[in-house]
Structure of Stage V sporulation protein D:
Amino acid sequence: MRASNVTVRRRLFAALIVGTAIFLALAVRLAYVQIWLGPELSDKAEDSWRRDIPVTAKRGEILDRNGAQLAYNISSPTVMAIPAQIQDPEATAAKLAAALDASRETIYKQLTTRASSAYIKPAGRKITQEKAREIRDMKLPGIVVTEDNKRYYPFGSLAAHVLGFTGIDNQGLTGIELKYNRTLTGIGGSISYLADAAGKSMPGSTDEYKKPLDGLNLQLTIDSNIQAIMERELDQAMLKYQPNHVIAIAMDPNNGEILAMGSRPGYEPGNYKAYPVENYNRNLPIWMTYEPGSTFKIITLAAALEEKKVNLTEGFFDPGAIEVAGARLRCWKRGGHGSETFLQVVENSCNPGFVVMGQRLGKEKLFEYIYNFGFGKKTGIDLGGEENGIMFKPSRVGPVELATTSFGQGVSVTPIQQITAVSAAVNGGKLFKPHVAKAWFNPDTGALVDEMKPELVRQVISEATSKQVRETLESVVANGTGRNAFIDGYRVGGKTGTAQKVVNGRYSASEHIVSFIGFAPADDPKVVVYAAVDNPQGIQFGGLVAAPLVKGIMEDTLRYMKVPPRKDQMDRKYVYGDTKIVEVPNLVGMSITDIYESMNMNFQLAKSGTGGTVISQVPKAGTRVEQGSTIRIYLSEASPPGGGKPQAQ
């Protein structure tokens, strides 16, 4: 009996020890969980209970080089649903459908989806402030109007193909909006609340707001004023010539910055769906490939001068065609240009003369320069959709291919390649990578975050050769096929181009792409402008269609840029039908009789006032105007200011 009691006591004692140990272990575990792990577990629990309503970050603005806003955001609220908090989905769907003018069935499906939150779309996305206020006033359980924004392009279609556009979720779809989408987008924020297992808001819980991080503002190299000048001229060309399309690019040749880029037909980024898809899904200045024609001769000229294969004063005879390996390659002028110098070969855009330049260079050397000028591969401009162009494979270049390449036939280039290469030919021989992005700025402080520096690809030709190219191309505008790009008071250089289009694998006799590339001032280029017109109706010569287009862009651009006129401009060669530019004489102090006796008939006279003496005139003396322009003189009996006769001219 005693033994039995001892055993029981031992067992009870052991049980007590074990129980105490378990209790102590549980106490330690509880303390560990509550004191050590408590905050972490509490945070995890709260995270599992917390629901987020996204708040969209403001997309970064896009500015031109002077700070003008080209794309920014406007407030555009969005309706969201928290399905677990909706008490009567059918009634809620009916009210929202009526307010948003949308399908009740579609909204009902979105209200009953198995998700913590859902957009009411498309009708509830990016609504007006008035509509947002109306829906908030309904106080519908489970319906939230959250802050959102949409893209706005204040200048409509200006620079549309460069800017591109965004989708419903503010994501970039084309152009700069797509290229720099990640940096422009920013990081979204949220409004969060605590919800139970059923998704309903917990009593006493407070909302937490996580501020979004807005995207950076992007400054472009584009100048909206030059862009507007360019697009005005593109619109006029479309009306005048009814082409398939027309493109233009303006570049600073000294750093590769694109000052303007455009094409027609165009579109409005804020309403792109209203236009044919081909209007907005391709940026023609970087996408279009075509035979460049005679503008490509600038590359042959630069290579021949650099390699000293041609002397511009050397004589050449053009009979109208040249025989190469059994092929007869004709000059554009029927019967040829006859005896001329190689300078006149360039002025006259004489094909046989350029064939000889190509032959003197040889296949390897000519194509070495073509590739060094950037043809046959993408320039790397920071816009999507750029094409490579097409060059002959060296193994397939025979005498005929060498000859046709030398005057721009049989090869395919893009406009951006063409203007980049010619910029290198006239800027001192430096090939720069073209770009449209200039700098990034903090949207809150305006502080500079990053800046894009000019990127020199390579030195292609020497400064001395580049100077020869500039002077030769200035002579083309003053004396040759580029006369219609001549701007009085400015030294302009350039080259025309007229190329037959390839239609169904053959050269078309009736369809052409005409082009012109010009730069000014010729002694120190500040801007290069390239334009191409696809299949203009009626006139189909680059000198008659594209040269005036470039002149219109360049003349206003030079004045806008405050580039001073040059005193040493090369005199223009006038031909039959040209209107001469003449200087207005000083008529102040003269009598009507004196004027008619001494003044030639370069001008028309219009009189204002009474009396016998001219006291003022418009335009003022020394102004250069077209021959036949009207001078308005103001008459009085009084002596002119300062008195006396006019100064000697």
